[in-house]
Amino acid sequence: MDEDYGDVTPITHDAHPGADAEPNIDELLQGALGTYGQIETTEFDGNFTNEDVKKLTRTWLNEKQAPDLLPYQDQLVGDLTEMVQNQLQLVDALQEESAGQAFIAMLYQSELERIKFVIRSYLKVRLQKIERYIMLYASSEDHLARMSLGERAFAVRYKSLFENHLHKTCLDKLPESLRSLDENNGNISMVTVPNLRSAVVCRVLTNVGDYAITETETVDMRKDNIFLVSYDSIQNLLDSHSIELI
Amino acid sequence: MLGDSAYKLALETKRTQTHLPSYNEALVHHLCREARHALNRIEESLVALETLPLSGQQDTRALAAQLAVLHASVKRTKRSLLAYHVQRLRFLKEIFWTVGTIPEEIKPRLSPAELDFFSHYAIAINRYRAPFIDVDLTALEVPPKDLYIEIRVLQDCGEIQLENGSLLLSKNSQHHVKRSDVEHLIAQGLLQHLA
């Protein structure tokens, strides 16, 4: 990588650049910005990365707001975790170089921390939903299909863990007829299900035109409009990426 | 009175939302016994109902009412029991995600089954997060603002390994460190994050 930075003003390797000479901030910044521009064009395609990060942020917000589990974005998470790995190596390499590069490395690290946070939060929100609605999700083909391999394995493990615990602590001490975990008690089912009629705020991404949000009500959905609607009425718009949840 | 103990347990469940009291083995045991007993009485009443002569209208109605009440109480007992245990599991999971291990002062308050659940839950999560090692799934869920933060040491932590070198964290000392290096110690309350 060394030869790529031919135009960068050489800066001493000293940990405290100010210790031996007057630090020239302009020079430092110029060197830094020059490097930044170069990495942008040579190391990876800036546009591509931005698109993926944007998509991830959208996916994460959708998942956070939707009451039900959304399909897992395998490709996206895979690509981004790989990118994070590569960037971490790049940062390590940069830090070995001069103070200017170390400054750039810091910018990269901050950005990486942010991306890592979004991925982490996305995965965690999904795990929380799986745990919460485990009795429904673990036996619903539809929901299992929306999980990643890891999530499915976790769901199976968690369900047996959860059931075992309840059996061990109290159910097994009850008469046999009372031991099930999926009966109805009056009108209340024991299986917790997500409330698909809960309200969500959505922004329209592409013109949809007239859309029936209830049996009797139709709204004109244009790009950038924002609506407060019940989740089940716009579920298929979300699937087709015509809207995003905010 | 019928349903009193179940109410007590439900009340305790509500309290568990904010802190974790000792596992109430005695009450759980008592409720299980109560439920078994109530179910026996239901069965007796059913037998009585079948053998009752058709003419005894008054008795039939009394028995039916008794059955309905008993049945409702058994269902309610079961619901309280489950709510109690599930709420405690929720608390345990919260501990797992914020602290990572069970603090010593909480351990005696847990039942053996709960300790078991905790360790198996940790295994399940660890298996899940293995492919995402760089993302560090158990890090705090606070949006990162700064890469480096100012911290004050509240309790001696000894020497910790940083990305580049090691650092001695002695009580009351203050450091400027990388956030991701010390995040878990902040979660455990050993360090304080200064502005």
From TrEMBL, chain A:
CDD domains: GINS_A_Sld5 (cd11711), GINS_B_Sld5 (cd21692)
Taxonomic superkingdom: Eukaryota
Residues of the DNA replication complex GINS protein SLD5 C-terminal domain: 194-246
UniProt key word Acetylation: no
Statement: the UniProt record of this protein carries the keyword Nucleus: yes
Region of interest (Disordered), ranges: 1-22
Domain GINS subunit as annotated: residue spans: 103-167
Location(s), subcellular: Nucleus
BP term (GO), one: DNA-templated DNA replication
Pfam families: Sld5 (PF05916), SLD5_C (PF16922)
Entry coiled-coil feature ranges: none
Keywords for this protein: DNA replication, Nucleus
GO CC entries: GINS complex
SUPFAM superfamilies reported in the protein's UniProt record: GINS helical bundle-like, PriA/YqbF domain
UniProt-listed InterPro entries: GINS_A, GINS_bundle-like_dom_sf, GINS_Sld5, SLD5_C, Sld5_GINS_A
Family recorded in the similarity comment: Belongs to the GINS4/SLD5 family.
Role, per record: The GINS complex plays an essential role in the initiation of DNA replication.
Name the UniProt record assigns to this protein: DNA replication complex GINS protein SLD5
Gene source species: Dimargaris cristalligena
UniProtKB/TrEMBL annotation, chain B:
GO cellular component: GINS complex
InterPro entries attached to this UniProt entry: GINS_A (IPR021151), GINS_bundle-like_dom_sf (IPR036224), GINS_Psf1 (IPR005339), PSF1_C (IPR056783)
Pfam families: PSF1_C (PF24997), Sld5 (PF05916)
Domain GINS subunit: 65-129
Annotated DNA replication complex GINS protein PSF1 C-terminal domain residues: 145-194
Principal cellular location given in the protein's record: nucleus
Keywords: DNA replication, Nucleus
UniProt keyword Nucleus, yes or no: yes
Compartment(s): Nucleus
Biological process annotations from GO: DNA strand elongation involved in mitotic DNA replication
Gene3D superfamilies given in the database record: 1.20.58.1030
Assembly mode: Component of the GINS complex.
Function as written in the Swiss-Prot or TrEMBL entry: Required for correct functioning of the GINS complex, a complex that plays an essential role in the initiation of DNA replication, and progression of DNA replication forks. GINS complex seems to bind preferentially to single-stranded DNA.
Protein family per UniProt: Belongs to the GINS1/PSF1 family.
Protein name: DNA replication complex GINS protein PSF1
Organism from which the protein derives: Dimargaris cristalligena
